[in-house]
Amino acid sequence: MEMLLNAEYLHTQTFWLVVSFVALLAIMWKFVTPMLTETLDARANQIREDLDRAANLKTEAEQMLQTYEKQLKTAQAEAADLVAQARKDAEDLAAKRTKELEAELSRKAEVAAKSIEQAQNRAMEELRKEVVNLTVQATEKVVGSMMDSKTAKKFADEALNELN
């Protein structure tokens, strides 16, 4: 301490260096440190707000993703239902058309069978008439006299029954 009170020491560079350094520290402590602290606090608050905003955005994005995934699943389920319904409708239509076609073919087969039966009946009737006529002609030649149609029909029926 003696040294501090010594007048010669007060004129040395070391003393003034120490005084300047202490004054600089006091000025910095009084003015610069609060400004630096304020700037750092503001920056920390800004970073905190940015992190909070990022967390909120992340939460919103996750919610939107979940909503999108739900909508996608719903759309896929609806699409699957539509495909299944379309397939069922197509199968039902095919079955209906098949039944209609079968009914139409059955009806045409019945018509054809009736037509064939009618043609057979006409052919048999014409054959019967022809046989009767031939029988009458043959009998006339053999007997020499004209036979009546009733008797000729009787002979023709007997002949046909023998053929069947």
Could you characterize what this model shows?
With 164 residues, the chain is mostly helical. It has one domain (27-163). 94% of the residues lie in helices and 0% in strands. The protein has helices at 2-5, 7-10, 13-143, 149-163. It is rod-shaped and about 190 Å long. The model has no long low-confidence stretch (mean pLDDT 85).
In summary, what is this structure?
The protein is built from 4 helices and no strands. By secondary structure, it is mostly helical.
The parts where pLDDT drops under 50 for at least 5 residues are none
Distance between the termini: 163 Å
User: Tally the helices: what do you get?
Assistant: 4
Give, in order, the helices and strands.
Answer: HHHH
Q: Which band does the percent of strand residues land in?
A: under 5%
Largest sheet data:
none
Structural class call reads: mainly alpha
**What is the arithmetic mean of pLDDT?**
85
Return Rg in Å: 63 Å
Show the helix and strand layout.
Blueprint: H1 2-5, H2 7-10, H3 13-143, H4 149-163
Tags for this entry?
about 160 residues; 4 helices; mainly alpha
